[in-house]
Amino acid sequence: MDFGVSMFPTDYAIRPDELARESESRGFESIWFPEHTHIPASRLSPWPGGGDLPKEYWHTHDQFVALTAAAMATTKLKVASGICLLIERDPITTAKEVASLDQLSNGRVLFGIGGGWNAEEMENHGTDFKKRWRVLRERVLAMKEIWTKDEAEFHGEFVRFDKIWSYPKPFQKPHPPVLMGGDGPTTFDRVIEYCDGWMPIGIRMSDPKAKIEALRKRAEEAGRDPQSISISIFGVKPDSAALDALKEIAINRAIFMLPAAERDEVMPLLDKYAQLIA
């Protein structure tokens, strides 16, 4: 089982390149950054975490700029989007960003995606909240065409383009792993159809073992090798018993959460997590 850390890379927190160096030196496998382009001031959409929305949600650096900073400061650490709000992004541009980062990092990108929860935020980008999963599916499929074809084309309901040339292609072949966030009633449908992994939030799961067994059974029934679908759990409890339980159910990656804070607050927690995985 590998271990990662996740933090909102904000303008007031420890720098993403500094956190990446410190994480790699302590044996972590990956670093994960989420994204929000903005938060609408209306605050109509309730935050799934409950209560007031923390300010880091509207103070994040651009996700791929932060991940590039992390990649350039390290040599082995995997750099991951957790999650990329692809429903708010142009798929042609995002395909180039992901491929460029994968090339410049020598194949260290993990592409985590999800549907998002803030309806007003995505509507500002032109995506209808009720259609977001259909939009996400087409954008992922279109990006895969761009990543793997010399002359890519896509003709869907939401994404449409005739043959294009777009380089660079990703360093990883056929492309960086696409990991689906979330734990809804139809999440497994999306994981099995067009993703390489699943990454739920651990603190919101009542029975991880049962869920993982259900996913692996669904994958086998669909003709996919269950072991080809990686399992990465966000927000794991930082204690030995919890980590041992995750090892027993054979997940691939456990991800610790760090606060969006300055070095003096973040480093003691990073050291604590490093001691747990040592």
Describe this structure in words.
It is built from nine helices and ten strands. An eight-stranded parallel beta barrel has the order 1-2-3-4-7-8-9-10, surrounded by five helices. It has a two-stranded antiparallel ribbon with strand order 5-6. The protein starts with a strand and ends with a helix. The chain is an alpha/beta fold. Helix 3 (91-104) links the parallel strand 3 and strand 4. Helix 1 packs across helix 2 (63-72). It has one domain: TIM Barrel (Alpha-Beta Barrel), CATH 3.20.20.
Question: What is the element layout, followed by pairings?
Answer:
Elements: E1 2-6, H1 16-25, E2 30-33, H2 63-72, E3 78-84, H3 91-104, E4 109-113, H4 119-124, H5 132-148, E5 152-155, E6 160-164, E7 178-181, H6 187-194, E8 197-199, H7 208-221, E9 230-234, H8 240-248, E10 253-257, H9 263-277
Parallel strand pairs: 1-2, 1-10, 2-3, 3-4, 4-7, 7-8, 8-9, 9-10
Antiparallel strand pairs: 5-6
Helix pairs in contact: 1-2, 2-3, 3-5
